[in-house]
Amino acid sequence: MKLIVGLGNPGKQYEKTRHNIGFKVIDELSTQFNLPLTETKFRGLYSKGIVNGEKVILLKPMTYMNLSGEAVKPLMEYFQISIDDLLVVYDELDLPVGKIRLRYKGSAGGHNGIKSLIAHLGTQEFKRIRIGIDRPEPGFAITDYVLGKFSKQEAKVMQEVMKKCVEACETWLKEPFLDVMNKYNQ
User: Under DSSP, is residue 18 helix (H, G, I), strand (E, B) or coil?
Assistant: First the structure.
């Protein structure tokens, strides 16, 4: 069974913010896979089903970003999901808007959602798709920036990026992650 987690914050006020791009990818996957996010347990909103012959769970932690690990770990324990079968999708300040980067492991790099996952899972060796949101202009607070909305131009770029992320997630259900990385880390 494979678990795809999108990081974000619950609530209408955060819906279209940069920090919620992980949630948006899960919403797109939910639509594409016809797996409505209707289950509420483990402090998250999730769905489970079969996609391309693979058992899949899609998860949006409802804990707020900084506590994401509090939703992911209990779900993984309950469904006995290996760390090798976890893929996390989230926003990345250190990549330009429109870039994605797939990685096998890594530090939190200042991302509080990833810090929470590392703390709760006891490892930083889990697969990720980082989606570039760029850094704010000097003098602009990072918190205000990540909780801000994309410009119209950025929103168009992000629509294409989300399609690419959805494809990468779907490819991971059929192919080894190394092959997915080689294909999408362009």
Answer: helix
| Cα distance between residue 133 and residue 90, in whole Å | 10
How confident is the model over 142-171, as pLDDT tens digits? 999 999 999 999 999 999 999 999 999 999
CA dist., res. 86 & res. 81, Å (int): 8
Tell if the pTM clears 0.85, that is, is over it. Answer: yes
State whether CATH 3.40.50.720 applies to domain 2-184.
no
Q: Are 5 and 42 in contact (CB under 8 A)?
A: no
- DSSP string for 142-178: HHHHHTSBPPHHHHHHHHHHHHHHHHHHHHHTTS-HH
Chain-centroid distance of CA 177 in Å reads: 15
19 is catalytic: yes
Residue ranges per domain, the chain? 2-184
Q: Which of 2, 18, 19, 60 is catalytic?
A: 19
d(CA 74, CA 148) in angstroms, rounded, equals 30
Q: What does DSSP say about strands 100-103 and 44-51: parallel, antiparallel, or unpaired? A: unpaired
**Whole-angstrom Cα distance, residue 155 to residue 97?**
10
